[in-house]
Amino acid sequence: MLKQKTIVLFLLLCLSLSMLVSAGLGAVSISPAQVVSILANNISPEMEWKEFSNVQESVFLKIRSPRILMSALVGTALAISGAAMQGLFRNPLADPSIIGISAGASLAAATVIVLFPTLAISSAAIAGLSVLSLATFLGALLASILIFRLARENKRTNVATMLLGGIAINALAMAFTGLLTFIADDASLRTLTFWTLGSLGGANWLNTGIVAFATFVSLLFLSRHFKAFNALALGETEATHLGIPIERLKIEVILFTSLAVGCSVAFCGMIGFIGLVAPHVLRLLGGADHRYLLPASALGGAVLLCWGDTLARTIAMPTEIPVGIITAITGAPLFLYLLVRKKREVFL
């Protein structure tokens, strides 16, 4: 237990330092002391102790702050959704994409980008949100509703049907996305490819606020079910005998993972790897107790995506590399190293 608390505290410290350092890296350099000074100055002008320019303040407040917060929030949403899915399905390969949420969002985005390219690149918006973002969120929501309806039988949710139905929906959605990719022109194909690989370049205070709301609500509801996830490791029947409301748990997990992942994909595109691997790495380091695993996965996902986005926007300036490529290249070797080192100690 002491080791698990130490890991969580280390991740919390690591996330704070990562956000502070990340805020200063880029075309306009800002030192950590200047970052703190800008924050303090905006709380009270008398609190400034380190000089900074107007350009540095503007870049930090208008561009980097929402983007860094967005990366931490999306990393949190994806990782805790992955940990909850793995606990619900008792399957180490489960993540939000396995029940078709991401594929549904991807198909909706591809439809708008390829068939309605003017809407995809225009500034047309509803309540401040782009048409592409709204369509993507609706695609994720519709996929969640469809898979949930398929899995309901005699007022019960069949997890096996949900898993198999999700695989079928994934295949169908990816087939139609492939067809749209085939008929896309060069401009639409480039937009679609970049969106599929993920980017946090479109972060602003409005969409960051929306993702923050969805992430915190999902985090709150998923984290309070740690006892149920621990009991589910024994099997559904055993968990029911222990007094766990299995049906309500399934509905809440599907609902809140759909909310968190749908909002993340709508604004940042497809960012794979985080939801699958972040819980695994933390499970290898600290064990499978969900009292530890859920908060640790949330923090680990936030740290991973914060640094993934920092590398994506800085290592090839002024060009930006899709963040999905960075998270896979940097995270997979770490995961493989831990897997090989501890495969005899931890059962996955």
Query: How many angstroms separate the termini?
Result: 20 Å
Order of helices and strands, N to C? Answer: HHHHHEEHEEHHHHHHHHH
Structural class: mainly alpha
- The amount of beta strand, in percent, is under 5%
Individual helix count: 15
Strand count: 4
Q: State the shape.
A: globular
Nearest-integer average pLDDT:
83
Low-confidence spans: none
The biggest beta sheet reads:
2 strands, antiparallel
Strand arrangement across the biggest beta sheet: 1-2
Report the helical percentage: over 70%
Rounded to the nearest angstrom, the radius of gyration is: 21 Å
Could you name the key traits of this structure?
single chain, 348 residues, mainly alpha, two-stranded antiparallel sheet, 15 helices, 4 strands, globular
List the helices and strands and how they pair.
Layout: H1 2-24, H2 32-43, H3 54-89, H4 101-115, H5 117-121, E1 125-126, E2 129-130, H6 131-151, E3 152-153, E4 156-157, H7 159-183, H8 186-197, H9 205-223, H10 226-232, H11 236-241, H12 246-268, H13 274-286, H14 290-314, H15 323-342
Antiparallel strand pairs: 1-2, 3-4
Helix pairs in contact: 1-2, 1-3, 1-14, 3-9, 3-12, 3-13, 3-14, 4-6, 4-7, 4-8, 4-12, 6-7, 6-12, 9-12, 13-14, 13-15, 14-15
